[in-house]
Design goal:
234 residues; globular; mainly beta; 7% helix; 12 strands
Length: 234
């Protein structure tokens, strides 16, 4: 019965993805629905996107901590370099993750994500809410993200959007876990390989790294995204 429910979940997410509409940088990060009690973390992300119009580089620096055994919050400063090679502070973001069920207790692990972002110099806001699902099959795991996004403000067009992300990961070793990632949005479908690693120190300290190369397959063109992330939890 659990396998039937898993297939139903996958089908539902793929149906959601078929009508997903989102602009901007669709490729970012596949979120897992887990929170470590009393965790604190420092995170850095880099995203380099190459298109026919040029290269765009974005970076995030975040500091997070858990406020309960199932809820963690994180604040980010966002910097971007545009096509003219100008790099500057672009915005701020506040993020909250909620682990809804105990890990491994049910047929799948479930969580939710909430984000609020403001552009640095413009009256433009973005709010995001979505579900995070993960199902393990032995050493393999499938992670699915589905987000609803609302944009508003004087300097941005008011609209609703959505995004879909998926990751198939094989835990070959703790420090080397190959994966395949899928990102879908408005006029964008991208897929490519990723690599994840985790090194544990004493106690709850651990360093996690991720790297992925996503190629657009929805239309002909030269759209490639490289993402890199480092996360230190303590």
């Amino acid at each position: 019965m659990s396998h039937r429910l898993t297939l139903l979940l996958l089908a539902s997410f793929l149906a959601f993805a078929h009508v997903a509409r989102a602009d901007g940088m669709v490729v970012d990060k596949v979120y897992h629905p887990y929170v470590l009690p009393l965790e604190r973390e420092i995170e850095w992300r880099l995203l380099s996107r190459k298109t026919e119009q040029g290269n765009v580089l974005g970076q995030r620096l975040g500091l997070g901590w858990s406020i309960s055994e199932t809820v963690t919050i994180e604040g980010y400063a966002i910097g971007e370099r545009d096509h003219q090679d100008n790099f500057e502070l672009a915005g701020y973001e506040l993020e909250a993750r909620w682990q809804m069920v105990e890990q491994g207790r049910y047929w799948a692990d479930v969580g939710m994500l909430f984000e609020l972002e403001k552009q640095h110099k413009n009256a433009a806001y973005e709010a995001t809410a979505g579900f995070l699902f993960e199902k393990e099959f032995g050493r393999a795991s499938v992670t699915l993200n589905a987000f609803i996004v609302r944009e508003w403000g004087q300097d941005i067009h008011d609209e609703w959007e959505s995004e879909f992300r998926a990751q198939y990961r094989y835990r070959l070793y703790s420090v080397f876990q190959p994966a395949i990632e899928l990102y879908m949005g408005e006029n964008f479908v991208g897929i490519g390989p990723a690599f994840i690693g985790l090194h544990r120190f004493d106690g709850q300290k651990q360093l996690k790294w991720e790297a992925g190369f996503i190629t657009e397959i929805s239309q002909s063109g030269n759209d490639h995204s490289f993402r890199l992330a480092l996360e230190f939890e303590f």
